[in-house]
């Protein structure tokens, strides 16, 4: 799957788990497995190696997984490495996410699920590295002639958008949506930003960042993400974690404007105007304008598209549903502008059909 060699560090105090996880990747010649029996040994390995993903057990002697996470996320050399935690305890998994874990796998783990989750996080890491590299290239291009710079910037922006779309689609390959949903959200969001009078620079930011709204779904188990019926309260609590996971994935330095905006949108696009949303219960203008814009656009696109748990609603039904959420779910001013310019959004929907 990956042309260059990728390293995965597995940290677990049970030798049988280290052997089993190593065996899972034996048919992947471009993946090298490093192993550590506890947190102390893992940190020693990290002095000489920079793995692309860390699989981390929580309960270990000498230094447990939470303590290791605290060290990893406080060090700039390791804070960007995705960490997939192993734990059979729901509270431990939530605590690990709060301490910066990117994903979790229940114990005892399913070998196929573990492999898929690790590879998903490996893909995310590769895309993040690629975005960083592009930004470095752009900084160097600033030293070149104006004409060359313009051409490079245009090409880089096109490449950045395609990468962001594909980055956003990582979770959608599991959620059975399509890249057209990602593109519709992108164009809807930019249009709504334009209609409310945001400057062109911010219109472009939301255009590039909005496709990342659901990237955290990469961390949600398939049996919940693809469930054909209603979720139980317990399953819904896990589903809500995709906002926090998305924020973790997109955490970056402030100079990476697209990723910073994507983090805000990923974390806040399920917040509601009346404060009844998640994950933080933000209310009114406490919710960032980018997230309020994407909330309107995402709900419209979601309810007018087929989902595994229900068929699409008609346009008329969608408008009815959204009007009912005018001062509870949505920023009323944004919703009014959206509905008053509805024909323009329908043109986008027609352009990017599934």
UniProtKB/TrEMBL annotation:
The modification 4-aspartylphosphate is found at residue 57. Pfam families: HD_5 (PF13487), Response_reg (PF00072). InterPro entries: CheY-like_superfamily, Cyclic_di-GMP/3'3'-cGAMP_PDE, HD/PDEase_dom, HD_GYP_dom, Sig_transdc_resp-reg_receiver. Residues 156-354 form the HD-GYP domain. It comes from the Bacteria. SMART domains: HDc, REC. Signal peptide: none annotated. Keywords: Coiled coil, Phosphoprotein. Residues 7-122 form the Response regulatory domain. Residues 135-162 form a coiled coil. The keyword Phosphoprotein applies. Gene3D superfamilies: 3.40.50.2300, Hypothetical protein af1432. GO terms for biological process: phosphorelay signal transduction system. This is Two-component system response regulator. It comes from Thermodesulfovibrio aggregans.
């Amino acid at each position: 799957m990956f042309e260059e060699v990728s390293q995965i560090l597995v940290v677990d105090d049970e030798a049988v788990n280290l052997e089993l996880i190593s065996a899972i990747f034996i048919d992947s010649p471009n993946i090298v497995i490093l192993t550590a029996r506890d947190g102390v040994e893992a940190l020693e390995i990290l002095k000489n190696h920079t793995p692309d993903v860390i699989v981390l057990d929580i309960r270990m002697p000498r230094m447990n997984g939470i303590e290791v996470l605290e060290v990893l996320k406080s060090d700039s050399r390791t804070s960007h490495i995705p960490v997939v935690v192993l734990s059979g305890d729901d509270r431990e998994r939530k605590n690990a996410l709060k301490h910066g874990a990117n994903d979790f796998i229940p114990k005892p783990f399913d070998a196929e699920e573990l492999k898929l989750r690790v590879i998903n996080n490996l893909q995310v890491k590769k895309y993040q590295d690629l975005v960083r590299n592009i930004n470095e290239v752009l900084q160097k291009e600033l030293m070149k002639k104006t004409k060359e710079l313009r051409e490079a910037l245009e090409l880089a922006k096109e490449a950045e958008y395609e990468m962001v779309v594909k980055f956003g689609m990582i979770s959608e390959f599991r959620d059975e949506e399509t890249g057209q949903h990602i593109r519709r959200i992108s164009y809807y969001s930019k249009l709504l930003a334009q209609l409310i009078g945001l400057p062109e620079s911010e219109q472009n930011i939301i255009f590039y960042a909005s496709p990342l709204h659901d990237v955290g779904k990469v961390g949600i188990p398939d049996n919940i993400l693809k469930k054909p019926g209603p979720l139980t309260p317990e399953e819904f609590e896990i589903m809500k974690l995709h906002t926090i996971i998305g924020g973790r994935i997109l955490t970056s330095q402030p100079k990476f404007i697209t990723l910073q905006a994507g983090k805000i949108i990923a974390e806040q696009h399920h917040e509601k105007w009346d404060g009844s949303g998640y994950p933080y219960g933000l209310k009114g203008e406490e919710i960032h304008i980018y997230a309020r814009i994407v909330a309107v656009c995402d709900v419209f696109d979601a309810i007018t598209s087929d989902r595994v748990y229900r068929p699409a609603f008609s346009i008329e039904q969608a408008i009815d549903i959204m009007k009912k959420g005018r001062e509870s779910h949505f920023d009323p001013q944004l919703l009014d502008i959206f509905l008053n310019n509805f024909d323009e959004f329908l043109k986008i929907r027609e352009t990017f059909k599934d």
